[in-house]
């Protein structure tokens, strides 16, 4: 299976770093993960970790942390954070069977129908009782969801939710706040995320430095067999 490019992160990693810093400034996603898939003392793998931005958060409490990323330049960037990062994709994880307690994927690969090979790999590498935690943008929530659907009209966010719920995942909706230090950074982020027309529309709708953004957190624990 070929890797699906991530143009925003692959082409503008420095801007995406600023986007990561602006996202979820109140830690609402981390609170949801702590409630549904705690990682203290666990062996954690972050799938599609990009340049490893989230790895240090897990590393503060986990027994071990590994990032897995398919794009070689991002693997090198992620390794600069001083943690273990392996090159690989969600459908063929470079990990032995039953070696992981928590598999985390944030806005990476697990977008609904078509990710079945990744679900099978999660089952393979997770220990009995281990969890797969999927964090994705909630495109049913305005205004960010409206901009997403404007640029990818074929995407059905309700169908994506149902895909995971039918497969035994929980569904938690999380309201977050993106907060930017200045207008130039906000504009740069919106322009790597959206088409020119949609970015212009978004910028006109955001007078300040903050954007409310909704997420979905899906968690499933896998038993043996």
Automatic annotation (TrEMBL):
Residues forming coiled coils: none
Keywords assigned by UniProt, alphabetized: Methyltransferase, Transferase
Gene Ontology biological process terms, A to Z: methylation
Xref: Gene3D superfamilies: Vaccinia Virus protein VP39
One Pfam family it belongs to: Methyltransf_11
Highest taxon, organism lineage: Bacteria
GO terms for MF: S-adenosylmethionine-dependent methyltransferase activity
Residues of the Methyltransferase type domain: 45-134
Name of the protein: Methyltransferase type 11
Organism for this UniProt entry: Pseudonocardia hydrocarbonoxydans
Organism ancestry: Bacteria, Bacillati, Actinomycetota, Actinomycetes, Pseudonocardiales
